[in-house]
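Attaching the record inline, Q. Sequence:
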Amino acid sequence: MSLDTTVPISQADMEARIVRYGELHPCKTAFIDAHTPGSDQKENFTIIGGGVSESADQHVHITDQVGFNIGAAGQPPKCRNSLHSHRTAEVFFVLKGRWRFFWGRWGTAGEVVLEEGDIFNIPTGIFRGFENIGTDYGMIMAILGGNDAGGGVLWAPQVITDAADHGLVLGENGKLYDSKKGQSLPEGVGPMPLLSDEVLERMPEPTTLDVVPHYVARYWDLMALSDNQPAKVIGEDAVLRDKPGFEVELLSRASIPADSYTTDRHEILMPMRGHWRLSWDGGTTTLNPGDTVAVPPGVARSLEPSMTGEASLYRVRNTDDSAGPTMVL
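Structure, as predicted:
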């Protein structure tokens, strides 16, 4: 959407709205499974918004509320993220590596393997987990619905039980307490209660065939769709039809806007491949894969690949749709 007037922004102010891949601050104690063998090497990143971290150690790069959160998970080979659920959207695309996503009460209901650039709009209301099955350190970028990311994380009961065996207790206040650091639950704060059998029985157990055709989009299919215009990835009339409070598009060299444009929405740019030149009224910069930039509403901007070769970029904008549950199976 174009605006009649545009807002200038200085080079320094825009640079402050760019989180460079090489400057990401990891948190290794973000969640309850931080000490659990098999999950104790993962790194969590909160890039835009408050995120869902349970640790006071989590660094937040950009605190703006844009209607959704941007984060990331970095993990070495064979490291996994334990089974959990969200009340609002959780969308991942693979920036680096090869990843297996699995879901269900015990993680055995279904699974899918994603390659670089693939995107997964995980259904709400189911337990999900993921692991790096590649040979090198991998990174997945995340989009979480809502400014408060749905109010946190719901863990499968066995995750909470296993964590307690390794010194971490999650309080009913949503905060972690580490007995290895001499911490204990404060007076008046009880442990996070386990989900009841009644609640667990109501949670869906969709199969791979239930999920993959409707919630997974492959990178090269999206690149083909972006031949003349941005590929609509997530949205009301997109490849993955949903209204989670944001929309996602994939831009390639063949589909970049010919002229500068302006929108009244918050716009997040996340390069996947190639180097991109971002120009605006006030300056210009180069974006690289893994960088994230939050362009505020009203700023006229233009994009173009700065080098030859493959170039792609995910673009996320807030919408007027509720960020509440939209895809319970």
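The chain has two domains: 23-217, 221-318. The first helix runs from residue 11 to 15.

More tomorrow.
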